Amino acid sequence: MVAPPAPNTVPVVPADLAIGAFSDDPPWIVDPEAMPWRSTVDDIRWLTQHDIPEIIAPRRWPQGFRALTVIRRLGMAVGLWALIGRRSKDSQADLSRRLRIAAEHLGPTYIKLGQIISSGEGLFPESLVGEFKKCRDQVPAEPFAIVRETVEADLGRSIEEVFSFFDRKPLAAASIAQVHAATLRTGERVVVKVQRTTVAQLVRKDLEVMAWLAPFLVGRLPFAALANPPALVELFAETISEELDFRLEAQNMLDVAKSFVSLGQRGYIIPRPHPTLVTRRVLVMERLDGFNFDDIESMKDAGVDTHAVVRTGMIGFMEGAMIEGIFHGDLHGGNLFVMPDGKVALLDFGITGRMDEGKRRAFLRLMLGATTNDVRVQLGALRDLGALPLDTDLEAVIIDLGLDGPPLDPTQLSPEDMIKEIQKVVKLLLGYGARMPKELMLYVKNLMFLDGAIARLAPELDLFAEITNISMYFVQTHGEKLFADVGVDPKTFELDLTAVKDAVGIDRTTSQLTYRELQERRELIRSRFEKRGVS
Q1: pTM of the model
Q2: How far is CA 439 from CA 330, 385, 500, in A?
Q3: What are phi and psi of 60, to 5 degrees?
Q4: CA atoms of 475 and 95, how far apart (whole Å)
Q5: Considering the chain, what is the average pLDDT of its residues?
Q6: Is the Cβ–Cβ distance between 7 and 1 less than 8 Å?
């Protein structure tokens, strides 16, 4: 343990704060060169990424009997919906419930897929999101005897040799792993993340089944009709595969913590991974404490500025993506909490967005095109991110999607016209070979979470003013690098909120919009979908 400072002395700043956004009261000091588990991280990451094409390669039939189980469970869910629920008033709600129950029966891989869907508000139908939110904290924990076996096998010692206390009851149990509170023999309070015993083998089998099944879902489900199931399986495979080795997660923690230091961003805190107690299936890390992200009253009672928490969340997340090319990829209420000093503690780094320099610059152009309302810049950036083939005729896309004409007001369209417009756009994009790159999906999903955070923490926030303030922050703080990276003359930069106003159907002369008002307009749009039985 690090001893507290003696009375009347200046507190010693932990040395590792120079390399990471860590807490001021360290249980140990992070020295990356003294962490033996890091030696194979690069090789593990490379092998994991290059194994995916083989796993999801087209095949006549997936190996083993897992396919039969999956087909039986999903077939029963969809079949019963088709016979009973399809004609009900809440058709999609009924299908969503049946799919969630099937996912829970099918186990970790499908529960994980459900958890990702549950944090994709705005990307997936509301009924599906609502049902799969039940997968977040209702995953049964593994018996302690199995947890003990995994920990002792990976650490090479008995639990009693390593820990003076190890809580048999987990703090949380998720699809891939569960976490336990513990105390090391040397006195440090820690959290121990333990992988479920058979999850790695099961995930591989399930991905093979998903890849085989996906082509049959095209056009057969309401959810799949607006997407490309085979591409979604590839996306899911890229997302879940790296979660199966905790050495990668521990390195993600160090890399994200380092990126915040490079940005001068001290509004976030990352728990320190243990120098030696990290293996493929066990991750020991510093334990942090704070307020649940939904505990607004306790934050306010403690004097926490919830508006500042929202602003920190937006800026830090966007900076990581645009400047450093790395960001936490799975923001939701269970993966972060607010500390008494207002800083945000980030947890669970199994899913992390990483972009090489080329993708980072493309992403930067996408964001710049959005703030200046330049459609051509945005489409070019999407192409370079991998969302469109490199030989795509962008001018043809603009004409086909009607992006060169007057915008449609979603609040004025009839339900039938709105559905037709969405189907037309999706069909055209799929025809061009469009897909959702992993990094872009994670970024948009996180934005949806932060959007919901504003609703809870700062509903009266003026969105136009906040967008302007954040944009100016980036120009003033990172302007030289940003404009150099995208090859734009900073003198020509001009913020344009026209696209934002068009998207929610408000007059372009409107100068103020609170989040509460935005929610009202969204509710109007959603109600139009419900009139057609779409939620």
Answers
A1: 0.85
A2: 11, 9, 22
A3: -65, -35
A4: 46
A5: 83
A6: no
